[in-house]
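Board notes (copied after class):
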Amino acid sequence: MAEQQEKIRVTCPSCFKRFEVSAKFAGREGPCPSCKKPIKIPELSETVVLREKEAFGGVKSAEGKLVFKPVAREDAKFSTTALAVVLTAAISAFAIAFFIGHSTEDKSSLTPIVAAGSFLIALPLCWSGYWFLRDDEYEPYAGQELWVRVAICSAAYAVIWGIYAFLVGYWELSPNLNEYLPYYVITAVVCLIGGGFAAAGSFDIQPLSGFLHFSFYILITLLLRLTMGLSAYYVNWWD
């Protein structure tokens, strides 16, 4: 073993100086060549040698025993099947929105449907958006943990829509966009920032990715409102 390991790497616990000594000094004590304080040379059995990766890989000790077994990382990617499911759900949502919107004369009666829909449509959008925007350097969330995060993010998105509607009513805005444009812009910016941080916090993604995640949701919900014959920006649920 000494022939295979001619040198032993040692780190002084006092000055943290690193150096090498001959394997024949294994187990002995002596002064550090830098700070002169006593240190003990590790036994050969205590040293760790990095060997070439074998069939299963990993790091072995001097005796050849496995010290660290590598954990295989599975790269979970957004599958075409999942994409097909999301597209199908989106097409179905637009079809339902068109049917409900054009079969209802009193648009104010759609408030409960719109409120519930803002949460329900967020579920597949938050889930699919996460797979597109997640950081590939980290293990993806999956299973129950992922769906809990999706539900939290979806609820946050629906609440932000509610806050937007509340502010429109609180400020007594009208559909006249030219007259109240600054109010609409300020409200929209605040909601976008809040939605971006909600997504970033829910899925541990970058704030910019969170902003894109929420923007995707807003785009779809605005198109659904237009499909129902509702205004895209004038949302006042309490008339």
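Comment from the instructor: Helices lie at 80-102, 111-120, 122-133, 143-170, 177-203, 207-227. The longest strand covers residues 7-11.
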